[in-house]
Structures are given as structure tokens and as C-alpha cells.
Design a protein that fits this description.
The protein has a single domain, classed as Alpha-D-Glucose-1,6-Bisphosphate, Chain A, domain 4 (2-Layer Sandwich), CATH 3.30.530.20. The chain has a seven-stranded antiparallel beta sheet. It is globular, with a radius of gyration of 15 Å. It is of the alpha+beta class and about 150 residues long. It is about 30% helix and about 40% strand. The N and C termini lie far apart (about 50 Å). The longest helix has about 30 residues.
Amino acid sequence: MGHIRDTFHVDAPLDVCWDIGTDAGRQPEWAEGVLEVKDVTGRLDHVGAGYTRVFQIAGRHLEARFEVVRVEPLYFMEVAGTTPGGGKARYTVRNEAAGSGTDGTFEMEYELPGGLIGDLANKLFMERALERQMRHSNENLKALCEAQVPSRA
């Protein structure tokens, strides 16, 4: 099983970050490699909300179905997902007020399909590719959230 984690600071309040982060339809704007989001059942601010993510990783187009399994509005979301090939992922997003901004932590555990071959692929290239995508996604989300905050001139 693979594991990736990233922490970041956003110069935008919790409610702005939460609003954008729980709008599954906006993921293609900030989530690296996400080509489309479909089958959205509503905002990701309650247990049972879900969506299908069409994404590209390591040059392949894949679909994964995700569902919110735990949520504490503004502060925490846990989401579980599966791919048709047997892959699994569980990610958490933690937000914490930090002055007028937000400190975020994104963490994901995942299992690639293919048993031993999937484990080998993960160690050879997938883990690094996922870490890169996660960092870029968090940078994009940060920029999107900060653009929603009026400048203080």
C-alpha cells in the first residue's frame, strides 16, 4: 500500500477553502491530471456524497468512484475510492485556521491493482508521480482559494 502526504498554507479563510474543496465539479480547475468529474451527487460536505473522477496518471486515462465517508464541516473530510481494475484509495483533507488563513493537510493511502506487479510499479514510478501531482494540485488549490479573497490595498 502506498502513502503520500503534503501540508500547505493558504492565505484564505477556512470557509473559502472548504467551499472550493467541497465542490467536486471544480476539481478540474485545480486537481492535477483530472480531466473530468461526473456523476456528482452534491457538495462533498456530507457523508454519502460522491463523484466519479476521470483522470490521467502515468499517461493512462482512468476512472475512479469516490464517496465521502466522514466529514467535520470546514475542518475534515475523508473520502474512499475504487477503480474498475481493483485499485483503492482513501484520502483525508484537514483544514485548520491559521490567523486569517488556512493550514491544509492532504493525505492518501492507496493500493494499485495487480498485486506484486502493482507494488513494484508503485515503488518504481507511481509514488513519485502521485506525490508530484498532489503538490501541484495543492499549489493550484491554494492559488484558486487566494484569488477569491479581496486584496487588501
